Amino acid sequence: MSCIFCRIGKGEVPATKVHEDELVVVIRDIRPQAPTHLLVIPKEHIASLWDLENEALAGRLLQTSARVARAEGLERGWRLIANTREHGGQEVDHVHLHVLGGRALGPMLPGSHAH
Ligand code: 5GP
Ligand code: ZN
Questions:
Q1: Which superfamily is assigned to 4-101 in CATH?
Q2: Which residue, 3, 42, 44, 108, has most beta carbons within 10 Å?
Q3: 3-class SS at 53?
Q4: How far is the CA of 107 from the centre of ligand 1 (A)?
Q5: Which ligand 1 atom sits nearest the alpha carbon of residue 31?
Q6: Domain spans of the chain?
Q7: pLDDT of 61-114, one tens digit each?
Q8: 113 assigned to active site
Q9: Does the CB atom of residue 29 touch ligand 1 within 6 A?
Q10: pLDDT digits (tens, 9 = 90+) for 35-70
């Protein structure tokens, strides 16, 4: 299995995990864009949000995002991002949600550029 997030989910590749249960793992992004930058990842391989048909799992990912944001102390607010497919700038083809916070994020999306 070459998918990096599948390997992290199975514990084959190290990552800093902040939460793990039977369905979901949450890790710190290796290239953080904010003081808190977490990735909420289902253990099942699903390519992107486009392909996420399991409503219960979708709900679990959303709820887990809010729980880890709370655990990180992000009372002042945070942002949830799902880069999806080519135009969405998705780099890892295993669905994941970015939880970003710890600073004012501004109107622009991470990695985007003002023109
Ligand atoms: P996206 O696919 O939404 O563009 O972003 C993928 C994210 O995964 C990036 O922010 C990148 O830094 C992160 N990432 C890629 N490979 C690894 C890894 O091996 N470990 C961790 N912790 N994060 C990773
Ligand atoms: Zn995968």
A1: HIT-like (3.30.428.10)
A2: 42
A3: coil
A4: 22
A5: 12
A6: 4-101
A7: 999 999 999 999 999 999 999 999 999 999 999 999 999 999 999 886 555 555
A8: no
A9: yes
A10: 999 999 999 999 999 999 999 999 999 999 999 999
What does the block give as tokens for 11?
Answer: 């514990």
Is 31's pLDDT higher than 80?
Answer: yes
The closest of 2, 82, 7, 9 to 43, measured between CA atoms, is: 9
Task: Give the mutation target among 6, 29, 52, 98 for probing the ligand 1 site: most ligand atoms within 8 A of CB.
Answer: 29
Q: Is residue 72 lining ligand 1, measured as CB closer than 6 Å?
A: no
Q: Greatest CA separation found in the chain? A: 43
Which pLDDT does position 48 carry in this prediction? 98
Cα of 18 vs centre of ligand 2, distance in Å, is: 19
Residue 106: per-residue pLDDT? 87
State whether the beta carbon of 30 lies less than 6 angstroms from ligand 1: yes
Chain Cα centroid distance, residue 38 = 6
